[in-house]
Amino acid sequence: MTLVSNDLRPSSALDDTDRAILAELAADGRMPNNALAERVGVAPSTCLARTRALRESGAIRGFHAEIDPAALGLPLQALVSVRLSAHDRQVVDAFRARSVRLPGVVSVFHVAGAEDYVLHVRAASADALRDFVLDHLAVDPAVQHTQTSLIFEQARGVG
């Protein structure tokens, strides 16, 4: 059984062409439609229609540039694990809504295990990271505990 979000077609609804389009775009989101069509073996008009349908279904969430954080003046990255003090839906949903808007937050992961969330954070310095944790997480009444792990190196996977 495949678990999926309510706004996304089950993976079984994607055919081989859809999966090929997704794989190519995951490797190069700036690939022109004509090149994409050629790589997956369909006509450009078919490729454009399928890509549009994949965006509308939620299979493609968006396109972005992968930028070196140091170029933005944020060379320090960390994963901040957060344990919430309560686990009812209102507390969980409110924390998620707040955390994605915090300065320096790149991604927010709701996880299983001892911690409830992991925040991928970028900061200008160790002092700025400490201030982020103290000013935004330690003072949040929903947060029971945090643990920060520095990221020494990041490599992007192919999948």
Residue runs with pLDDT of under 50 for 5 or more positions: 1-9
Radius of gyration: 19 Å
Strand order of the largest sheet: 2-3-1-4
Distance between the termini: 20 Å
Number of helical runs?
Answer: 5
Protein name: Lrp/AsnC family transcriptional regulator
Keywords: DNA-binding, Transcription, Transcription regulation
Domain HTH asnC-type: 14-75
Organism: Micromonospora musae
Describe what this molecule looks like in 3D.
With 159 residues, the protein is an alpha+beta fold. It has helices spanning 16-27, 33-40, 44-57, 89-99, 126-137, and strands spanning 76-84, 105-110, 117-123, 143-151. It has a four-stranded antiparallel β-sheet. A hairpin with a 6-residue loop joins strand 2 and strand 3 (117-123). The longest helix is centred in the first third of the chain and has 14 residues, at 44-57. Mean pLDDT is 91; it is low at 1-9. Pfam families: AsnC_trans_reg, HTH_AsnC-type.
Question: TL;DR of this structure?
Answer:
The protein is 36% helix and 19% strand. It has five helices and four strands, in the order H-H-H-E-H-E-E-H-E. It has a four-stranded antiparallel sheet.
Topology summary:
Layout: H1 16-27, H2 33-40, H3 44-57, E1 76-84, H4 89-99, E2 105-110, E3 117-123, H5 126-137, E4 143-151
Antiparallel strand pairs: 1-3, 1-4, 2-3
Helix pairs in contact: 1-2, 2-3
